[in-house]
Amino acid sequence: xxAPHGYCDLRVERVNDGIINTFIEYGYTLIxxxxxxxxxxxxxxxxxxKKKKIAECNDENxxxxxxxxxxxxxxxDDSKLTIINRLTVQITNIGQLHRIFNSQNFKSYIxxxxxxxxxxxxxxxVTLSSIDIITCNIKTSITPKQYTIAIEKxxxxxxxxxxxLVNYITRQDTLSLAHLxxxxxxxxxIIISSGxxxxxxxxxPHDVMNLGILLxxxxxxxxxxxxxxxxxxxxxxxxxxxxxxxxxINIMPRTTTS
Length: 258
Known about the structure:
Helices cover 38% and strands 17% of the residues. The chain is α/β, with parallel strands linked by helices. Strand 4 (111-116), helix 5 and strand 5 (133-135) form a beta-alpha-beta unit. Residues 44-64 and 240-258 have low confidence and may be disordered.
């Protein structure tokens, strides 16, 4: 199974016909539908072991106890667009991430993004080659050394532009985040995603590349921010396809009418 080439958006919060058609109209070839899990609300440690033991005694279904929900991936009928699933986990310690790795539902996701909720966990995250994307915010304290280590592990950093459309505060926060990543790592390994909830949040690739320049990226980096992302998923798509077959992408031709 080969990954398509072209423009991609690796964070779409919701998918429907309107959103799919807008991405196709703008010339995108791949999108990733995101599911977010806040592990800080779930916790780890003795309390969880006790809960697990109680669940086993009550014969509760493992699926119901899975930390990771089933993916949002839906069948669609246009061969011009590939839709894959992405999981974003918000964690306060590495133990929560290991719990995610043991989830049965986790195996159905192609991309893993992690949002560290404290600086200590970020220090450990940058050393893990199993992570694809680190999602930061303006409160994230990352050092140039940590940034370099992440790049060596082929980890990408993400900036989403949909929050910029909400209000001045979120727009300023996004600009500040981009500035932080530029100072700490010269904007290397940056991907720009939409974080789209509806079709009005989506921008065409050329607008996104122009936005990248505003965010401190060079012209080359701006283009790579919505194209080089295929290096994240190409190997994963191939291994995923060998494991469960062509249903990983669910593409069918559509007969269009003029």
